[in-house]
Amino acid sequence: MKIKSNLNYYILMLGLILIGILLVNNICNQCFVEAAPGNWIDKSKGLSGKYASSIVINPVNNQILYVVMYEKGVFKTTNAAQTWYAINNGLNTPESKQVISLTICSSNPEILYVGTNKAEIYKSIDGGKSWKLSNQGIEPGTVFYTQVFSINIDPSNSSIIYAATSTGIYKSTNGGNSWDRVGSNKTGLSNSFNKGIAIDCKNPFVLYAASQKGVFKSTNQGKSWFAIGPEGEYVHFITIHPVKHNIIYIGTSKGLFKSSDSGENWVKTGLKSKTSGIFPSVKSIVINPAVPQVIYVGSNLGIFKSTDGGETWKEMEPKKMILLWSSNALTIDFTGPVIIYSAANGFKDKPGGFVWSWTD
Known about the structure:
By secondary structure, this protein is mainly β. It contains one helix and 28 strands. The chain has a four-stranded antiparallel beta sheet with strand order 1-28-27-26. It has a four-stranded antiparallel beta sheet with strand order 2-3-4-5, with no helix packed on it.
């Protein structure tokens, strides 16, 4: 009788443990599927690749997004990142799938451009269904391949495109059919390792280039350049205020800088991690066009938000929800409730590329 009683006890305890496991598992699943505003949700179903380096949203259909995954090419979603599928028709070589940059044409969202780690630019005119090599004039590089870090389309003329690369700034005036190098030592761009470019929407003749040694400016669509500082800063990203075009923000390896006079002077903002107390390496900056005082920043320490034009910041990363991760790029849906999408790479126990979303 005693043996039978002990056996019943152990069966009961085992049953309770199994029920507990099922309940915990169900709660965790709900956190990621039905998370309330203020929580990060893993939106990586269908993705693969070493890391996610760039992400864009269709400006007329917020259900459609594109993300590039290094060594795996381009992926698309038509259901707001619930699921993703590869769209690599035309990206037929391993080199062509080493994509690191992506842009979408605001006036015709069926047109996309991607840049690779191997001196290649590809163009799609059908929403990513097919890709065609479009890099005539892009120099392959001497010691290392030319890396295409950023591609920007002139908002006033979609035939004019700029590519920021590891060998300078390239420009196309025919929709990417051919390219000319307009940013180099010969034209005043003394540092040709350029991570990004910004075009002044009010005056498209004015360009700003992000480099390893500060910011360079052109007032003639790239024909000539001059340095505007901040001296010695490695600049990853640059963007212009959507209303006050004299205000410029740059993301550097040592935090976020702001200029209120078109680059004449720069001030380092107070953006830094409260957890570690260090300034993050800023990879992307997005300004809310309707409320320009609201700024979002993606960095190696996660994502930050300011509601006062960069004076103060808060971290948008609940440590209990996700592991330590680096945000490489942001795109944000401002059409309704603000939804942030981050192209990221994890590390430690969860390596690889991911897309996370947050409803603000």
